[in-house]
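[retry 2/3] Probable purine permease: previous attempt timed out, resubmitting with same input.
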Amino acid sequence: MKMKTVLVIINCIILAIGNCGGPLMTRLYFRNGGKRIWFSSFLQTSGCPIILLPLLFSFLTRHRQQQEQEDTKTTLFLIKPPLFLASVVVGLLIGFDNYLYAYGLAYLPVSTSSLIISSQLAFTAFFAFFMVKQRFTPYTINAVVLLTLGAGSLALHADGDKLPKETRKEYIVGFVMTVAAAVLYAFVLPLVELAYKKASQRISYTLVLEMQLVLCFVATCFCLVGMLADGDFKELGREAREFKLGGSKHYCLVVAFTAVIWQGFFLGSIGMIFCASSLVSGVLISALLPLTEVLAVLFFKEKFQAEKGVSLFLSLWGFVSYFYGKIQSEKEKKKTQEAELSQLPATESFA
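[retry 2/3] Probable purine permease: success.
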């Protein structure tokens, strides 16, 4: 099995865990008495120190290889200033996106939030077309339209989907914030792909991990400033003691698992951009959302009205359309290559 195939499988697994588990853990926090939106935003990227483990392994491997070859001194980090600065910019955008998403999830059921986020693929395709010249096909356009309609259908019956003790105004603000989060992250995905393409150095998976560490650290610092401004540190102790799920002990467990699981989402999405493209990463994120909706209904007993059923149907239709188009595109590419090969002059063999 090729190394790139192994990386695709690994990134798909950790992306699936993060994409499905992250929203559920965040909703569990809000459901049981958590109210600090900036703190919830902070948790989405604060698990980044985990990345130091594979980076340490990579460094030791490079160091051993260079010692065997009697090469020059092993550099601790591969990332160069231009890519570092690009990672800082992306990190600031992700920090703001974390806040938008956490704000939306504080006032929306997970199933509703996931369906809205599925519209992210439409925006990713739009930005990828202009930023990295991603080619559109009729199937891609069809998928984009269906996913957009799927998210839009949820706005038709907002009153029946509000959480207990929630006002209509809070629901609408949560809805708008979630749409804004989807648009912003859809912009971030092709922006990362553009950074890869414009980089003045070879992009390796180790370099991808270093970028992930930088952008998550910057996003975490951005949210930390928000926590300080909003007075979160004064409230966390009381919030932990009054946590409905089981007090401080269970509060700490929820916080720790939330940070670790969300890191899987970011690492998987950035990794899939490296292995494939920003659009493929966006498709995988959207394709996993129906599973998140089902898990939310099962674990949190969320209502699943007709509007959600229609939205889910349109989303699944969009996914099928996209993947069918990819299969057809690969077949056409293969036929074209075979036709070009058949037109090449045959070489004569001499005894």
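[retry 2/3] Probable purine permease: The chain has a mean pLDDT of 84.
[retry 2/3] clearing retry counter.
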